[in-house]
Every structure is written in C-alpha cells, then in structure tokens.
Amino acid sequence: MNFEEYRAKPLLAKSGIAVPESALVRDADAARAAAEKIGRCVVKAQVPTGKRGKAGGIKLAATPEEAKFHAQAILGMEIDGYRVEKLLVEAQVPISRELYAAVLNDAGSRNPMILFSMMGGMDVEEVAETDPEAMRKIPVDIRRGFDLAMARHALEGCGLAEMEGAVAEVLVQLYQAYRGYDAELLEINPLVLTNDKRVIALDCKLTIDDSAAPRQAELAEQAAPELMTALEAKAQQAGLKYIALGGSVGVLANGAGLTMTSMDAITHYGGQPANFLEIGGEAYTKAKIALSILLENQEIRSLLVNFCGAFARTDVMTEGLVSAWKELAPDIPIFFTIHGTGEEEAVKIVRAELGLEPFDLMDDAVKAAVAAAAEAA
Fold first, then answer.
1. CB 221 within 8 A of CB 271
2. How deeply is 54 buried, as exposed, middle or buried, from its count of CB atoms within 10 A (0-12, 13-18, 19+)?
3. What is the pLDDT of residues 114-173, one digit of tens each?
4. Are 278 and 259 in contact (CB under 8 A)?
5. What are the residues facing 3 on neighbouring strands?
6. 24 phi and psi angles, rounded to 5 deg
7. How far is residue 298's CA from residue 212's CA, in Å, rounded to a whole number?
8. What does the alpha-carbon distance between residue 172 and residue 149 come to, in Å, rounded to a whole number?
9. What's 282's DSSP letter?
C-alpha cells in the first residue's frame, strides 16, 4: 500500500517529527485561501509517486495569487500515470541543509535498514551512483531495536555539529514509526536543518506491507488507489493478481512462488514472460476466468501451465482450465507440467480432452513454450 504525502506527513508528526504547516486543497481558489493563511508556501501535487518536482508538480509561491496560478497549472496534470486532483499547500521554511533519511526492509539481512545521507533533496539512485560513500547504511537487529545511542554512533563524522543529537532523535522516531505502522519503506527526502536550528521533514514517502492491513485497518483505508491497467483491474475484481510484463510467453501457475519460478525459468531459457498470474490459495478454482484474462493479452504467443498441488488439487485447476480452453479456443500452443495432489487425474484430463502430453520436467515444458513463442514471432 502506497500513501500520498498528505497522508504520510501526519504520521511523522504523530511520531514526534516536525513537519511544516499545510493544507490540502482541491481547487485553485482553495489554494489561494490556504496561502493567505500560511504565507509564503509550496504548492505540491499529491500523487503516490516520486519525481513530482521534475515533472513540474511542485512550485514555490510568494503570494496567494501566485499559489492560485501554480494550482491552476498543476491540477489536471498527469505525473507517472496519475492525474493530479489534490494539492498540498505547505509553508516554506528557511533551509540551511538538506539531508536524507529512510528505514526500509533489507532483503539481504531480513531486517530493517536505516539509510542516511548528508545529500538530501536528490534522487537516491543518483547519490549512490555518484558517491556510494555518501549514503550510510545502518543495519538494525529487529530483536534489539534502534535507540538514541545507536543513532548518535551512526551519525559520527557526518559534520552535523550541535544538530547531531536532534537528527539522531529523528532517526529513532522514524524507526519507531516504521515499526509501528508495519512499513516496508518510510522515507524523508529532504529532511532539512533550518536556519533557526530546527529539523523538519519536508516530504515523506510511505509504503506499508499489504499483509498488515488487518492490523492497520484504519490506515489501510487511506492508502492511495493502485494504478492498474484494465486487465489488472478485471483480475482484481475476480480475486486474482495479474501483472502484464510485456513478453510473449504466457504463464499460468498456482502460487506466487511457483509463478515467479516459472517466470525465472522462461527468462533463463531465452524467453520473456508475458505476465504474472497465479491461481493459488482460495483462487485455485478460478482457472477459467484466469485464462480468459490472460488471453486478452494479444502479445502472447505460447502458454506455459505449471501446476503443483499440495492442498490445492491439480485436477480441479486443470479441469477448469481445459474447459475454458475448449470454450475460448485460442490459437496458440499450450504446454503443461503438472505435479502433486490430483496429478494422475489432471494428466488424464489433458490427454483425453486436449490430446496433449504434459511434460514430466518443468524445464522441458518451459523450453517448449519458449521455442514455440520464438517460432510464432
């Protein structure tokens, strides 16, 4: 779940991190009224994506009329596929230095990782590329946590002088917010030092683990709507997860892990997967709707079906898929590999109804699907 800035900033404030005075508006006149109250301000597009400034979605305004002018220009703008319908009018602050701070899930250590840089306000990728040493990486043992002493130690040698303690406190508060809200990423860029010796978060990016929704029910309702294609939306309505990937080998498997393994194997053998689409868990009976969604992608030249049953029965999935295949009658080759619960029955269904022989090995099925797609192309 991704959150727009105006949703994430109050969570920082609730955790003790200072944020500028601001107002959410939806039209230019409201932006002008907000600026009259706030004073010199920043007019910021509210969409759940980065690089808003580069797209022209963040503008400084010295007067209410200027705020209205910028609001008129930004509203309706499209940034990274999102239409701007809301603005945050935020007070300008006297910036002395821009920093970067974030906490994220580190796949390597399977623990949180705190990132800190004295080069805030820039793209993280750009900082890492131009000067890898500029980004400090502080691994955190999730069992032990992260306290003020650790934060001070992490900031040693950064040149923060008398502001080191205040910045260290913000890092601790940021980590606590990350843990408290089940975040995958909580980022402040820039985190600024002001001329009057304050530490203020000027922006915030928040991503929360989808599986945390039951624990964060109230917060989950505030998440930004996911930007989806028509097929992705159709799949979601059917209780399926579909992602178009641009390749020519269609993939239909049960379980996210097996689907990703199938995709990796397709790439390994020289092909390109056309999609992510899995029918595991409670969706294992939805082979028919899954197939119909998948076949709406006109770029698919072959289809790999990889079923491996544990609790889900492969014969139930296969029966639904074969029935749909005969009904839809697609003009592409299909390749099966089936193992696990209901395997014998599933193989019999494929043989009897489609006249095809499933492959014993996944690799052989993948190679055949990749070769067929290449030949069709």
1. no
2. exposed
3. 999 999 887 776 776 777 778 999 999 999 999 999 999 999 999 999 999 999 999 999
4. yes
5. 206
6. -90, 130
7. 36
8. 10
9. G
pLDDT in tens, 257-288: 999 999 999 999 999 999 998 887 666 678 78
How many Å apart are CA 305 and CA 315, to the nearest integer? 13
| Complete DSSP assignment for 133-148 | GGEEEEE--TTT---H
Token couple for 109? 């250590």
Of residues 57, 11, 5, the one with CA closest to residue 219: 11
The whole-angstrom separation of Cα 198 and Cα 194 is 5
Q: What does the pLDDT read at residue 281?
A: 62
- Among 177, 158, 172, 167, which Cα is nearest to 119's? 158
Closest alpha carbon to 59 in 87, 101, 17? 87
The residues of the chain scoring below 70 in pLDDT are: 125, 128, 281-284
Q: Is 105 helix (H, G, I), strand (E, B) or coil?
A: strand
Distances (CA, A) of 143 to 112, 113, 114, 140, 180: 10, 13, 15, 9, 14
Q: What is the pLDDT of residue 71?
A: 98
DSSP H helices in the chain: 5-14, 28-38, 64-74, 124-130, 148-154, 164-180, 217-220, 230-237, 256-268, 287-295, 314-328, 343-354, 362-376
Residue matched to tokens 């095809």: 356
- Give just the sign of the alpha carbon dihedral 70, 71, 72, 75: positive
CA distance readout (Å), 237 to 43, 59, 228, 320:
36, 38, 12, 19
**Domains, the chain, ranges and CATH?**
21-91 (3.30.1490.20), 95-220 (3.30.470.20), 230-376 (3.40.50.261)
Name residue, tokens 């295949």: 325
